[in-house]
Amino acid sequence: MDQVRFGIIGIGNMGTSHAKQLLRDIRGARLTAVCDSNPERLRWAKENLPESVRTFSDANAFFVSRAMDAVLIATPHYDHPTLAVQAFESDYHVLIEKPAGVYTKAVRDMNLAAAKSGRKFGIMYNQRTNPLYAKLRDLVLSGELGEIRRTNWIITNWYRSQSYYDSGGWRATWAGEGGGVLLNQDPHQLDLWQWTTGMMPARVRAFCHFGKYRNIEVEDDVTAYVEYENGATGLFVTTIGEAPGTNRFELSGDNGKIVAEDGKLTFWRLRVPEPKFNAEYTGGFGQPECWKCDIPVGEGEGPQHRGILQNFTDAVLRDEPLLAPGEEGILGLTLSNAMHLSAWTSDWVGLPLNEDLFYAKLQEKIKSSTYRKSTGPAGGKLLDVSGTH
Amino acid sequence: MDQVRFGIIGIGNMGTSHAKQLLRDIRGARLTAVCDSNPERLRWAKENLPESVRTFSDANAFFVSRAMDAVLIATPHYDHPTLAVQAFESDYHVLIEKPAGVYTKAVRDMNLAAAKSGRKFGIMYNQRTNPLYAKLRDLVLSGELGEIRRTNWIITNWYRSQSYYDSGGWRATWAGEGGGVLLNQDPHQLDLWQWTTGMMPARVRAFCHFGKYRNIEVEDDVTAYVEYENGATGLFVTTIGEAPGTNRFELSGDNGKIVAEDGKLTFWRLRVPEPKFNAEYTGGFGQPECWKCDIPVGEGEGPQHRGILQNFTDAVLRDEPLLAPGEEGILGLTLSNAMHLSAWTSDWVGLPLNEDLFYAKLQEKIKSSTYRKSTGPAGGKLLDVSGTH
């Protein structure tokens, strides 16, 4: 094979953006099919995509067509796992949009289907291509920071107005998205939080506020406290309601602290590790000598979506290692599910997660939802997502 | 009266430092008496203070002496309220070191005694003289930030080594200090957290780790989450175990956000308040125009202890308003007590605090303490506290 034929299912905001990149920017990739149940989007595809791109309104017809080698799934979140399972069972390679799904039970099934199929499986964690986070991961996993003691991510720069929520009926509902800021805006940070540190928490206590800043039924403000196996603690603070918000990730460890903020990585590096200093010091108020180090980081935010599309294409063509294996999507979603469950039960949630309990509680939320969207001035129209992640 | 005669009770670390300042730097103040039950400290006083300064080994003799107009209390924390009550009942003005005490029940009695006496009552909240926090309070209380939405103080730069804890038998024990980092290092930040915002939380959920980084029985690592009446949330993160640590206080409000860090105050000011923007905006991903403003702040850390001593002296002499009225000491201590109680009960703690429950739990900790100090290399010696607060 010298070219990967891509079929995209779901050509809304993100799917459309991916279609354009596949037509233009990805070596070894070709867009050969799209599928969408919305007639308006299909009409757009027929009018704007090359004639060679086949269009499908029905998922089953799409999957039996063999019009592609790989399926890119860019539908609403709930459908990611079910469509991925269908794609694997139809023997396609699969690249899914984030989040992996809405509840981990379904994502586990997807991961099993992927393993059984032997096909390539990727997830659109495009922030893993950001040199800032790649370098942070490098510093941590190579041991420069030493044992981690605290993680503290303030990620409150996801500002969204009421008009944003009014723009799509499925947005920010339990039935449509299965959550709010955690499901739609934070999947990248939830992934990077564990990807850069190599650590998943042992337990989670989260405080979610639902419809605090916007007329929505899901969470729009979250503070999550976690504890890790090694005794470290962590915080994850997020909202769509603050402007301008903050994106500051601080990691503290035996050898000092690292802060990722404003595209810069700063390492306050101790000359000797803190435990060694503490064991040897005999004075009163002294502390370890510390060097403020500006860590070199590649320019810009990296290749982002294009990078993931290229890497996935290269994985299919030449067996290159995936930067974002699809099976890892369950990790960030587990964090998100655990935060919801902790807030709903007002209690600690230990990991591994009680996936059945989460699923049952989510169904309760969907069933008891009385929320009906009022269509605002931007009602139903497609948003321009260029510049978002 | 054209001069205030000061008597200091407790001439350990802080009392000695105050004695030197009263002898040297405070207009209208004179040091006329000191009291300490430790013969070594009394000998130091006789050898190093002017002959005119009377020395007492017994508190009762000190209080009946009329050798002073104002009593400065710089003993271990537990004794602050009881000695203050005795001082007020003996008709002295009173300035106490922070914290106001160890449990609010006793501090409430102290405040009643102060009110009954009609004497001046101050507390050594010297960080209130820091131009950074004075300006922050000014911005918030004058309404520049608008309604507060989140407070987030990372105050982890209180590094203390094991040798520090080994230097005094009363340090970091339930019986001696009644707590760890919250009682000894954080009283200023706990005060400033509410002083700069004008808000006390409605409820507190805190996660304390006891003896995590040091061989001590009290808390050395704390993450506290709070909720305010107006719906705002807050975080207070503190430890003595991290180097170099962080001191970053972020406030988010309707009109933007303010960060106090590295002696600088930065105000990301929205051109129109966020609620107005949100009500009028009809697009997808827009957000309010934001101006990054460097707020002018006076040089340095302000007059600190000298400032409080001078202000208290001026209050006694000329009825000048107190910058840090003693009655306000109960606020920061309430936060600290609530954090302990939340950790001990693994539950929310609502304010007003259940003071009897806190007191009972503290007594349990003291009674069940099996901790015996090992005297390290710095055992029992006086630490040089110049440069600490």
UniProtKB/TrEMBL annotation, chains A, B:
Residues 4-122 form the Gfo/Idh/MocA-like oxidoreductase N-terminal domain. One of its GO terms (molecular function) is nucleotide binding. It comes from the Bacteria. Residues 133-258 form the GFO/IDH/MocA-like oxidoreductase domain. InterPro entries: Gfo/Idh/MocA-like_OxRdtase_N (IPR000683), Gfo/Idh/MocA_Oxidoreductase (IPR052515), GFO_IDH_MocA-like_dom (IPR055170), NAD(P)-bd_dom_sf (IPR036291). This is Gfo/Idh/MocA family oxidoreductase.
